[in-house]
Each structure stands twice: as structure tokens, then as C-alpha cells.
Description:
CATH class of the largest domain: Alpha Beta
CATH architecture of the largest domain: 3-Layer(aba) Sandwich
Number of helices: 17
Mean pLDDT: 86
Strand content: 5-15%
Distance between the termini: 75 Å
CATH topology of the largest domain: Rossmann fold
Order of helices and strands: HHHHHHHHHEEHHEEHEEHEEHEHEHEEH
Amino acid sequence: xxxxxxxxxxxxxxxxxxxxxxxxxxxxxxxxxxxxxxxxxxxxxxxxxxxxxxxxxxxxxxxxxxxxxxxxxxxxxxxxxxxxxxxxxxxxxxxxxxxxxxxxxxxxxxxxxxxxxxxxxxxxxxxxxxxxxxxxxxxxxxxxxxxxxxxxxxxxxxxxxxxxxxxxxxxxxxxxxxxxxxxxxxxxxxxxxxxxxxxxxxxxxxxxxxxxxxxxxxxxxxxxxxxxxxxxxxxxxxxxxxxxxxxxxxxxxxxxxxxxxxxxxxxxxxxxxxxxxxxxxxxxxxxxxxxxxxxxxxxxxxxxxxxxxxxxxxxxxxxxxxxxxxxxxxxxxxxxxxxxxxxxxxxxxxxxxxxxxxxxxxxxxxxxxxxxxxxxxxxxxxxxxxxxxxxxxxxxxxxxxxxxxxxxxxxxxxxxxxxxxxxxxxxxxxxxxxxxxxxxxxxxxxxxxxxxxxxxxxxxxxxxxxxxxxxxxxxxxxxxxxxxxxxxxxxxxxxxxxxxxxxxxx
Length: 506
């Protein structure tokens, strides 16, 4: 049995390795904020969300659409989905407390522990089938449709009732019947467990005390050797059926574990949706285009991480960058450039793992990889300077680069002088563009930005953080050529003029 809620044709691999740059993506895009919102304090939900989002770049458009339709079903039927998840979690927790018997070396312990667990599992399977019968028509996605169809077709009442009868018979309340042969040394061999004889007698036979012919013997209570030999024969007689029951427990438990894992991703999506809805923020299910088509357009896109932290209104941005390979973003300090960059990177990751994004609409191509190159603090151990560290990270990105990747640069190569930093940035960007990359670059390197602008490349788009004449930042990004100033004087006035005014007052 397979859940198939995350992929059409296979289970979700919770043990798959994270991408090599998982730590950088998490730090630069502040991904931990989204993960915490999805997990709501649950470590298992956190692990599933982390693995699904960070490994999402490997998904194709079919997988993305499959997950989106399942998630839409979850949003429409959140109570049913949460009830299913809670049921599976409680079932696995109860089974875990009986796992000691399944690991025993004694067949009798394995047999009876497996029987107890399977009896509980049958009850859970019956409840899952009931959920499918009562609520299945409300789910429209391929994932839930196939899952519920499996519950109703393979777990019908006749089948489950027969399983319970077989489990009851395997408790051997009336003793164990098996056949055996005598070996060369008169030891028992070829022990085979047999189905108990039918005990159907007429009422007259029961009154007369007549039953099927049988030979019996009684063991002396003090015969320890005989008792041990009988116990060994009994264990050998039930060993195969005990092993088969243990395998059945593993099979169903593994299905429950996978169902829990795949439902956990969608429960995390519900948690994130609830957190954003509580703030009155919009969400959108994006259109995922094919890799290389260079689509990127959105309306009211906002940084989900910032929105989760802030209580004030969040400013969204609208942009059509279809067909553009290079976006150069300049403008006033503290004007929202880095936030804008993070909002795009985060939306790309959320889209490719199958989630909604923080926007009113979002269309983008699938990227084969996502890389971030953000400014870092200087090495406190003085092993290298900031420029050396930036170049080392860029070298790692080059080693893992794939065509149709997205790269986000934030104030990169500004650790040296304007001329040298601009030349490094120019050569790296042009080389990446030749390799069919999509690049978004936030920079204060005017020579680099101006040089790109003057080349008037058809695949480029130049944005500026908007600043009003009075110095107020609107946190909107508008199209415009790079300016030589970043209006740092505004920050100087905001900080030092206020301090001077406070000093005069005191």
C-alpha cells in the first residue's frame, strides 16, 4: 500500500539528503521562520517541512501540480485531514509501546504481540475506510481520490471481518494443533501448524460425551525436561506463523508511517495558511512553468518570513519579468531591496515544493537549482578576509551550478573597492548568463550596475527601491536606471539628527 500524496508514483523519501547549500538557503532566506510556522512546535512536522522545502528543486511541474491539488483539498477539508493525521499519530504511538514483544526472540511473544497490534491496526483501517466513505466525495485531487479508493476497495467489511476471525483463531485459546514426524534420532521434525478440527457435534453426541477419536497423554507436573521439550515443539510449530504476523505488522506500520509523513507536509501547510490568514494576508497557488521558459511575474508578492514576524502591514510588490534573464536592483538604503530578493527566493522554493506563496498571483518557471550569495560578517577567527570568503562561496556555487538555475546575489563583492568589486561582479554575472542562469542582483556597485545598464541587454531589467522627495521609503520596487547614490545621507540624518535633538532637549 502506498499513500501517493506527495508523488504520483512513489513515496516521499524522508531520508533523502538535503542539498549541499541547505544551510545557506535557510540563513539567507530566513527559512527557519516558515518552518517554525509550519511545525507549530512539533519536531516531526518540522523535519518533514524542512526536507520537503529544501529538496523541492528536484520536483517537476507534474509533481508540483499534484501537491497543489492535494493541498487545496486539505484547505477545503482541514478538519478531516487533521483528524486522519491525529489518528495515525496515536496509532503509531500505541503500537510503539508494544514493540518490545515484536523484537523478542521467542515466537510466542512475537505471535501474541503481533496479534494485539494487528487487531488494533484493523480497527484503524476500518476507521480510515469510514472516513473515505463519508467524506471522499468532497476531495477532488488525484492523490486523495486514489488513497480513498484504495481504502474502500481493499478494506471492505467482509475482508476486515475475516482478518479479525483469523487473528482470533491464532490466539489458540483451545490449544495448538500441528503435525510432526519422527526423525532418525526419534526427535520431532517437519512440524506443520494445522487448522483446528471442526468441533461440530450433534446435541446427542455432546450428551453422550462422544467426540473425534484422539490419543492423549498427560505430562507429570515435575517433569521439567518434558515441559521444556514440549515448549520447544510449540515454539517451532508456531514460528512460521509468528514470523508472518510480524511481517504483516511491519507492512501496515510502514504504510501508516508513510501516510503520517505525507500528511505531515499538508498539516504543516495548513498551519502556515492559518498563521497568514490570521494576519489577513493573501496567498496564491502559483503556476509553475517549464524550466528555461523564463517566466516570472507576480502581483502583491511579499516576504512571508517578514510577515510572520511583523504585526504592521506588509508592502507587496508587483512585477512582470517574463523573458528577463538578469534583474539588477539598486536604490536607497533600507528601501526593501533585500526583502524583495528574499520574497522571490522564498516564493520560488515554496512553489517548487508544492505550497502556496505569499502573493495575490505568482507565475514562475521551475528552476533546477537555487543559489544564494548574500553578504556575510567577517571571519572572526581571521582565517580569511571578506572578499576571500565571498569568492570561496562563489567557487562552491560554480561547482554545483546547473543550467536554468536561479541565483540571488545580495551586496556581493562589495568588500573591496568599487572598481575591483564591479569587475568581479561583471565577469561572474556574464559567465553565468552564458550558462543559461537567471540572476537577481541587489547591489550598490554603481560601476557594475551602470555598465550592465549601458549595454542595454534585451534580457535585463533594472529596478530601484522607490524613495520619495522627502526621503521616505515606500518599500516598492520600480523600474529605473541605476543611480550613483544610495541616499545614505537619509540614514545619517535619521540617526544623528535625532541624537543631537535629544541631546539639546536634555
